[in-house]
Every structure is written in structure tokens, then in C-alpha cells.
Amino acid sequence: MRVFIDRQPVIGPWGGGNKTVTALHSRLQIEDVEVSYFLDENVDLIFCFDPRQNDAGLWYQSYLDHKNRFGSKIIQRVGDCGTHGKPELTQLVKQSTYFSDFVIFPSEWAKRYIQYNQKKCSVIPNGPNEIFYKGRHNRSLGKLTKVVTHHWSTNEKKGFDFYRRLDEVAESLDINFTYIGRIPANFELKNSEYIEPLDMEAVSSKISESDLYLTASLEEAGANHVLEALASGLPVVYHQGGGSIAEYCYGYGEGYSTFDEMIESIKKIIENYQNYHQNTMTYSRTVEDVIDDYMDVICNQN
């Protein structure tokens, strides 16, 4: 069997989709499945991570043309739904999923967002790399509660206004706030720690040193950053408008909609920290579990 994957693994700090691409690539090789990044007549299955044009100039129309010519089936994994200022991507996802033989959604929210109503699909939640479990340990709070978040994108929907406002009041709340990742050009933290993007092992280490994870990100189709926090054993304070985030974090933290509610949610977890922490310690999903589910889908396309 020869499987074409439309995205190649990238080394270094990158988004969660790249981690899944890398894991799928590795598993297919282990299973002695031939992986290709070029389309030819020997490709049996096309695995589409993104319908937009890739580095080789191929996009969904290329895959559909190949399917019509050679009979290759298309599995489409929906990652980015275009919610962060890309309405043209939203439309492309809606169109392309209609023609795919099978569609994988990372959340029920993503499926609802693009209004998918066909049966040839499955909701397979994302999972974190196992490295984030290595720093997991039973913890208790000190005088200062260590709050952390991390994002590689600078899109405004990542919630920078919330982080800026928390930075202004963190000291009065006995909170030590750390932001890891990329920030917009006009963004500045005056009372908190800022750390530039780290590789996966280093970011795992930094998260595991914290007590509580905060995300203000909105409309995420399949958010990996909160799953990395759960794997590290941290309760999560999350925005109710976070899309998949509210699904992923239900039972492992507290939601909010406004800044004042965010502060109250942080306080609520601090006051009952051990209960929230122990619930979080039951989370066990990994990216390898995700790939197990992907492989079941791939095998069922034969």
C-alpha cells in the first residue's frame, strides 16, 4: 500500500498539526506502508491534512483529479477550519469534505462549525506527545501559584488581551504568570515572564514546573496546547468560546467568558486545587492513541 501525505514533518517549534503528521509518518513506516509526498499512479490512498496548496504546489483539486483518474481514495483530516481570520479556508474545507471518501474531525465543535451532515466521518480527538507525561507529578501549591500558557501563533484570537490584563493584576493575586511562544509586535508583559518558542522537550519541562494552565484562545478546531497541559497534570482555565477546548477540558478545569470570570475560575481552582489536580491526573490520551484511530480508518478504506 502506498499512502500520499500532503504535509511533511517539520523539525522545531511548530503547531499541533505537525506533531500529528510526524506521528502518522512514523507509524506508517513501522507498519511497512510506503509513504509518498508526490502523487503518481501508484498512490492508493491520499491523506489530506490541509486542502490548501502545499510546498509542492499541490492542493485539494490535485487530489480530486488524481482520485478521478486513478481511483485513489481521499481521507481528509480537518485541522484548521479557518476560524482565525481565514474565511476562504472555511469555505474550502466545506467544499473539500463533501468530495472526500472519509473525513476525520478533531472535535464535535469542528464538525458543527463547517456544517458537515454526511455519515462518512469520525470524530477523533487529538492527543499530546508522550513526552508531556514525563514531567507529570503530584503537586501542591506554594505561596505563589504558577500559571502558564503557550502559543506558537500570534493571531489575535489566541487571547492576548486576556493575558495582558492578567499580567497587570497577577502580583495582587499571588500569581506568577509565564507565557511561552510567539507574541504580536505590539504585545508586552511587564510583570510576567516571557519565554521565546522552545522545542517540545523544553516546553514540556517548563509546563511541568507550573501549577495551573490558562488559555484564552477562541474557536480552536482541535487545540493541542491544552492537551499538553493535561498530560503534564495541570488543571486548565479555558474560554468557553474556545471550540474544541471546552470539549477537551471538560472535567479538568473551569471555563469562563469574561475577564472577571477568568479570575474567579482561577481562584476557584486554587481554593480546591487538589481535587482539580487529581482529576487532571486521570487524563491519559496520547498522539499514539490518535494514530491508532487513524490507522483503523486507513485500513478500512481498502
Task: Give the key terms.
302 residues, Rossmann fold, 2 domains, six-stranded parallel sheet, 12 strands, elongated
Give a description of the structure.
It is a single chain. The chain has helices spanning 16-30, 60-70, 87-99, 108-113, 160-169, 200-208, 225-231, 244-249, 259-271, 273-280, 287-299, and strands at 2-5, 34-36, 45-48, 73-77, 102-105, 121-123, 145-151, 175-181, 193-195, 212-215, 236-239, 253-256. With 302 residues, it is of the alpha/beta class. The chain has 2 domains: 2-126 and 286-299, 3-Layer(aba) Sandwich (Rossmann fold); 130-280, Rossmann fold. It has a 6-stranded parallel sheet, sandwiched between helices. A 6-stranded parallel sheet has the order 9-8-7-10-11-12, sandwiched between helices. Helix 1 (16-30) crosses helix 11 (287-299). The longest helix has 15 residues, at 16-30. The chain is elongated.
Q: Report the β-strand fraction as a percent range.
A: 15-25%
How are strands sequenced across the largest beta sheet? Answer: 2-1-3-4-5-6
Give the class-level CATH name of the largest domain: Alpha Beta
Approximate helicity band: 25-40%
Task: Return the domain count.
Answer: 2
**What's the architecture of the largest domain in CATH terms?**
3-Layer(aba) Sandwich
CATH fold title of the largest domain: Rossmann fold
Average per-residue pLDDT, rounded, comes to 94
Alpha-beta content class = alpha/beta
Q: Which regions have little confidence, pLDDT < 50, spanning 5+ residues?
A: none
Number of strands: 12
Summarize the helix and strand pattern as letters: EHEEHEHEHEEHEEHEHEHEHHH
Give the number of helices. 11
- Rg calculated over all Cα atoms: 20 Å
Instruction: Tell me the name of the CATH homologous superfamily of the largest domain.
Output: Glycogen Phosphorylase B
Distance between the termini: 9 Å
* Shape assignment: elongated
Largest sheet: 6 strands, parallel
